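Now for a concrete sample entry.
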Amino acid sequence: MADSGRNGRALIVLGRVLVTGITGQVGSAIVGLREQYQFDFIPIGRSDWDMVAGEIKLFDLVEVNRPDIIINAAAYTNVDMAESDRERAYAVNARAV
């Protein structure tokens, strides 16, 4: 849904958006779009959801927050560490979601 915003810019109302990985490069860029795009932002960082420990599952976050959209920007991106910690890198990047 579009609406006229400040400076004649179009604002897009997205609804409730759950974003994981908010401290990473992609997640923080999405956070920066909050002023341009109106949405009910549900930020999820590592302290909110440890993708590997499994105490809280993505399903639980969805059930509690009821987002309209989910953007998974969480990832294991440290290439050097991924070489020595392959199991965790695989768990985050392939199995967690």
In short: The chain is about 30% helix and 25% strand. The chain has a mean pLDDT of 82.
